[in-house]
Write a structure and sequence with these properties.
The strands form three sheets. Strands 7, 8, 9, 10, 11, 12, 13, 15, 16, 17 and 19 form an eleven-stranded mixed β-sheet that branches. A six-stranded parallel β-sheet has the order 3-2-1-4-5-6, sandwiched between helices. A hairpin with a 3-residue loop joins strand 11 (about 280-285) and strand 12 (about 290-295). The mean pLDDT is about 95. The protein is of the alpha/beta class and about 425 residues long. It contains 14 helices and 19 strands. The protein is about 35% helix and about 25% strand. Helix 1 packs across helix 2 (about 25-30), helix 5 (about 105-120) packs parallel to helix 10 (about 200-210) and helix 13 packs antiparallel against helix 14. The protein folds into three domains: about 1-130 and about 300-320, Rossmann fold, CATH 3.40.50.720; about 135-295, Dihydrodipicolinate Reductase, domain 2 (2-Layer Sandwich); about 345-425, Alpha-Beta Plaits (2-Layer Sandwich), CATH 3.30.70. Bound molecules: L-homoserine. The site of L-homoserine (HSE) has 7 residues, from helix 7.
């Protein structure tokens, strides 16, 4: 018997418990394993309501799980850095193996966690930390082990994807779409982690480490959220054949890694443009496979519980074989990180300008000074206020130049308010 201890009986904890109970016989049939939940801790006693949990299993003290000799695998599902970090370290020191869905903890404390685990011959499973039910960690670590990974393009945050999808499909404002997402329980009451790209940065940090074997840190990833996106830009994007998505992008070229999470324009015919609503997807390009697309539910009790259970079963199989080391190493080699300023992509830019002769030439003159070449221009209608949106697409430009040109253009007396720039990600098909 492999004993499981769960710390945290929230959404994912409940899903994990339910799957282990309901699919006990199925898992036993497939693997021969007898996997049993022997201890569950949650500070909120009400959480066990509605679940059939036998007497003596539920406790309000996480240490009861960690110290129980019948527990072989500790499943940490409380999230956040502390006390989750302390619980995991003390469980590892007792020789327990760990399964966690805690992306913030992994992103922030990866080196310490895996060093301590290696010293104690323990393993940490984290399939549930990225993209909920989609087995993307296993795909990158095992399925693509014979590839050099060239490129990762992720839609890793369901909340932001839902909001942008509603803005795109229904023409809603950001605030209305956010409020709807909150009413439906998709967005948190404090949505900062999701809408400002922080959650997606944590997930991209994990994927990038696995794909490129370099100890990339949260602060190495360039980040921008979706709250600045306006319906007018979504409309212009459509006219040019693009959709705006919160994209997590990581690429390696010449031993240099570039990683960023930000709203960007993706061609409508790219497969990732059809990832809508709360769905997540990761598009991974291997040098041998070419592009692969992993798509599915990125959150929720059962999908994320399914990922937790996959780690539990994988570990239990290895425990049965008496294997002490992980199948695939997570050791890292430091690589260079490309700063945002040096990055080079095409851009969408929107200026709010006076509609009179010579304005376009003033704008294009400044762009030319910074070596930025225009590939398309739209100017719409004549407004009574005398200001109209002028929208341009550029050929590939260096980010530093683009920002400097924008600052100079903003200072022209014919320009009103702040201009907008959005990256265009062609998506490496
Ligand atoms: N809050 C996350 C999202 C789900 O909106 O995708 C958990 O990772």
């Amino acid at each position: 018997m492999i004993g499981i201890g769960i710390i945290g009986l929230g959404t994912v904890g409940t899903g994990t418990y339910k799957i282990l109970k309901e699919h006990f016989a199925l898992i036993k049939h497939r693997t021969g394993l007898h996997i049993e939940v022997v201890k569950i801790a949650d500070i909120d006693l009400k959480r066990r309501k509605g679940l059939t949990i036998e007497k003596g299993i539920f406790t309000s003290n996480a240490l009861d799980v960690i110290n129980d000799r019948k527990v072989h695998i500790v499943v940490e599902l409380i999230g956040g850095i502390n006390p989750a970090y302390d619980y995991i370290l003390s469980a590892i020191k007792q020789g327990k193996w760990i399964v966690t869905a805690n992306k913030a903890l992994l992103a922030e404390k990866w080196d310490k966690l895996f060093n301590v685990a290696a010293r104690h011959n323990c393993e940490i499973g984290f399939e549930a930390s990225v993209c909920g039910g989609i087995p993307v960690i296993r795909a990158i670590r095992e399925g693509l082990v014979g590839n050099r990974i060239l490129y990762i393009l992720g839609i890793l945050n369901g909340t932001s994807n839902y909001i942008l999808s509603r803005m795109t499909d229904e023409g809603m404002s950001f605030n209305d779409a956010l409020q709807e997402a909150q009413r439906l329980g998709i967005a948190e009451q404090d949505p900062t982690l999701d809408i400002e790209g922080i959650d997606a940065v944590h997930k991209l940090c994990i994927l990038t480490r696995l794909a490129f074997h370099s100890p990339i840190k949260v602060n190495d990833i360039i980040r921008d959220g979706i709250s600045r996106i306006e319906p007018i830009d979504i409309g212009f994007a459509k006219e040019f054949g693009y959709k705006i998505k919160l994209l997590a992008v990581a690429k390696e070229r010449n031993d240099t890694i570039e990683a960023r999470v930000e709203p960007a324009m993706l061609p409508v015919d790219h497969p990732m443009s059809n990832v809508n609503g709360v769905y997540n997807a990761t598009y991974v390009v291997g040098d041998m496979t070419g592009p692969n697309l992993y798509y599915g539910k990125g959150a929720g009790a059962e999908p994320t519980g399914s990922a937790v259970v996959s780690d539990i079963v994988d570990m239990a199989l290895r425990m049965r074989e008496g294997r002490k080391t992980p199948i695939i190493s997570v050791s890292m080699v430091e690589k260079k990180i490309r700063s945002g300023e040096e990055s080079r992509v095409p851009y969408y830019i929107r200026f709010n300008a006076q509609d009179r002769p010579g304005v376009l030439s003033k704008i294009s003159g400044i762009l030319a000074k910074y070596n930025i070449s225009i590939s398309a221009v739209i100017q719409k209608g004549r407004k009574e206020s005398g200001h109209v949106p002028i929208v341009m697409l550029t050929h590939e430009a260096i980010e530093k130049n683009l920002k400097q040109a924008k600052r100079e253009i903003n200072k022209l007396p014919v320009i009103k308010g702040e201009s907008v720039h959005i990256r265009i990600e062609e998506g490496m098909l």
